[in-house]
């Protein structure tokens, strides 16, 4: 944190507090909106985001347009209960890139919330046909798929 420029600090603070943040620390992030909200040029915002990712503070999924904050769970899950668990489970179900779930989960203390993250990481890997390294593989064509019900 001490080695960050003022623009990097502003971008990191924006990532922690903008209107798109979720309970799980993984959410879609529009870089143009970030540039508008922070008052920085788009090129400067992209440079800061790249720098923050190189520092290991955040991770982006360019394909899905999502980002994750590394230590989100360490500071936001000090207390919980059934309502928080339900919220976390609902938001985890909306995440498109399972590698982001694993990225955040690695820094959550062991407990019920951590097990939800781990469960969703495994579920995503099975549903999306991903390998351990996170690369997608082609789904088996004979794999059963849920039936479509029309009313």
Structure overview:
The protein has helices at residues 6-17, 31-38, 42-54, 72-76, 82-92, 98-105, 112-128, and strands at residues 26-28, 58-61, 66-69. By secondary structure, the chain is mainly alpha-helical. It has two domains: 6-69, Winged helix-like DNA-binding domain superfamily/Winged helix DNA-binding domain (Arc Repressor Mutant, subunit A), CATH 1.10.10.10; 72-128. It has a three-stranded antiparallel beta sheet with strand order 1-3-2. Strand 2 and strand 3 form a beta hairpin. Helix 6 (98-105) runs antiparallel to helix 7 (112-128). The longest helix is centred in the last third of the chain and has 17 residues, at 112-128. It is globular, with a radius of gyration of 17 Å. Mean pLDDT is 83; it is low at 131-151.
Features:
151 residues, mainly alpha, Arc Repressor Mutant, subunit A, 2 domains, 3-stranded antiparallel β-sheet, 49% helix, disordered C terminus
SSE layout and pairing:
Layout: H1 6-17, E1 26-28, H2 31-38, H3 42-54, E2 58-61, E3 66-69, H4 72-76, H5 82-92, H6 98-105, H7 112-128
Antiparallel strand pairs: 1-3, 2-3
Helix pairs in contact: 1-3, 2-3, 5-7, 6-7
**Main sheet summary:** 3 strands, antiparallel
- Rg on CA atoms, Å: 17 Å
What is the total domain count?
2
The structural class is mainly alpha
Work out the strand percent. Answer: 5-15%
| Unreliable stretches | 131-151
The N- to C-terminal Cα distance equals 55 Å
Helical amount: 40-55%
CATH fold name of the largest domain: Arc Repressor Mutant, subunit A
Give the spatial strand order of the biggest sheet: 1-3-2
Number of helices: 7
Supply the CATH class of the largest domain.
Mainly Alpha
The CATH H-level superfamily of the largest domain is Winged helix-like DNA-binding domain superfamily/Winged helix DNA-binding domain
Q: What is the string of helix and strand elements?
A: HEHHEEHHHH
| Mass-distribution shape | globular
How many individual β-strands?
Answer: 3
For this structure, the quaternary state is single chain
What's the architecture of the largest domain in CATH terms?
Orthogonal Bundle
Mean pLDDT: 83
